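yo

u said u wanted the structure for the complex thing, so here. seqs first:
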Amino acid sequence: MTDLLKNLNENQKAAVLHTDGPLLILAGAGSGKTRVITHRIAHLISTGVKPWNIFAVTFTNKACEEMKKRVMTIVGPQGNSVFIKTFHSAAVYILRRFGEDIKIPSSFTIYDTGDQEDVIKRILASMNLDPKKVKPSMIASKISEVKDSERFIDGVDVSLLLPDYFSFNFEEIFKKYQEKLAENNALDFNDLLIKTVELLRNSKRALTELQRMWQYFMIDEYQDTNHSQYIIAKYLASATKNICVVGDDDQSIYSWRGADIRNILTFEKDYEKTKIITLGENYRSSKQILDAAYSVIQNNGNRKDKNIIAFRGDGERAVWCMANNEYGEGEFVVNTILSIKSREKLKNSDFAIFYRTNAQSRIFEDFLRRENLPYRIIGGLKFYERKEIKDILAYLKFLVNPGDTVALRRIINTPARGIGKASQDRIAEIAEKENLPEWVVIRDELMTGRVPKGLDDFRKIIVKLMRMMETVPGELTLSQFMKSVIDITGYRESLREENTLESNSRLDNLDELLNSIYDYEQTFPDAAPANFIQDISLYTSEENPSDDPEAKTNSITLMTVHNAKGLEFPVVFLTGMEEDTFPHKLSVDTDEGIEEERRLCYVGITRAMDRIFLTSTDLRRSYMGPEYKRPSRFLSEIPRDLLDVKSYTSEYSGGRDYSGGGYSYNGYSPQRRESAASAAPVKKYQLPVEDKNSVLPPVELAEQQELSATGSQFLLRERVLHPKYGPGRIVKIEGSGDNIKLTISFGITNRVFMEKYTPLQKMN
DNA sequence: CTCACGCTCTTTTTT
DNA sequence: AGAGCGTGAG
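structre next:
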């Protein structure tokens, strides 16, 4: 067992050896935190603690997976018996076992954000509120915010928690929402935690039982816990007080979700005789990277200053590359990857591209595909959020829980059976009047008047599937049953008939779903449909289930900075380092907002082991049109001697253009070209000729603008007056002679005209 | 009732 | 650039 401690420093050792009593580990980035946790688990087991007596929770699915993997490598198969979960899945486990004590049937389903919004939409409709003026997503996040709040969890009435500035009755919506969920036997993400708190408060039996089972607690990312998570931990650990929490206030990035940084700052007050251990040595990043990261985070006022010691040598300087636009940024990133790969023996999986928002991923994907570089995206468009997957899972949800009207609405006319809105409303009406579930109205054929033919089909399909499901698992495996669901409902058939590119990809996705169910039942052979449904809802942040392991290890990773927490890569690209992108526009108004963005930036930089590239653009297109960008303030917080500044200009524009006069200019004039040492352009793309000039050139390059060689009487970028559309600007000239086509931008929209037939007037 | 088309609005991070 | 909605034809 001395082996276990061999590769640890003094503080890490102390943390591993302190097994009994409260322990607070302040673990800076790269300080070997996960290592300590896993070794600590191994050490506990080696001293005779049973694996199933250990409870370890992390915050995200990915971190959880990582921890499981690493525990398994150290302790072997008995690692399987250690309870390692996310907070939410731990809550599901607890509620499934003991929820009956507070009247939560164990068959409850979990509503994700989409389901929540469906419920809210229907409530808004019933209250005659315009979903355009009152956005369901806004209501959903407000509801979530209330439910996350400390006072709500401590029992304060909703009416006292609501701001009074709403033009509508929020309280009524809230109450109806809660009723609807109860009616549907559903819990949302907040409920999982809240109900667990309620259970632990009210069920002595549950608490005793759980406390007997779990005697050692470990909570990772403690700075990200919200109030209910804090309470849950407190209840569970109250018997033994063997609680070890790990965190770093500099990496708190979830306050918008109710995470309360005070939980870590006051831990020592909550638990008497807390032992505090600081892990201040960074083993991950080379010194220059660490210094850059540190120079950023130092600008936060509200933090405990810590002395982070770089263990590694100086390494390479951080690079800041200013690109002319997002295509330049994408090209720079991909070129740099190719260039590094050609010089150094690095695998694709050694590279990661981070961005602030998921929407930024697309351009990187395009460039990576172009170069045939395999990549995988974490988060973003999630597999289980695809329409066809949600549809089929909605069938299963409904079969398991026929009270789930959200699922019913989803499937009743999917595929189309001629049961339209009118019929659906009538069913709901009858159900309301007779005080029966909607499904019973359908099942017992209580509908009067004109009954759509398809309704009878639907009834038969559901009854048949319900009978079939009774034989699962047993006669039928879950995956066999799900295959039947896809077939019997006619879903597969309707996609086959469509026979488009899209429908075929949907069919593929359904096969992937069946594969993932098959995998699931290998792990849990006795799993009933209900268990599967419950597990799957929490699985949403997982990547595509069919990603084969090979691809996983040989792919470049793309993800948001939030998703990057806890991970590390030899080469990191932190992209979109512009004001209003990172820090994000919606966070810049408050000091707290800025500080959280800064912590996020710190998290991003400290993921890098050997090299970090920060990129910004001068001009970025969004759906609002092109916008001039100023470099992120975080860049200016890094001293110049820690930054290698480059610039990169791409002529590629993705076949689109930036022109049209309508872009906003927020006062920044790019005066950077003097340092224009172009970075590692390994390879220029073959550009379609007509794309060549379609990027609006930077101001100082404007004079280099070539004259159009097509024989047009107009010049590129010339201002013209169109008789019908008014003033515009020529952004593209194609063809020659009588066949010249002009693309003219009028603010947001572009239109193409034949020069010959269009009476344009020059405007200069 | 369904489908297709065109219009509008979209602006963060995740369990 | 894309989703979601309303409208109008079949």
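Confidence is low (pLDDT under 50) at residues 541-546, 655-709 of chain A. Residues 11 and 279 of chain A are 6 Å apart (CA to CA).
cya
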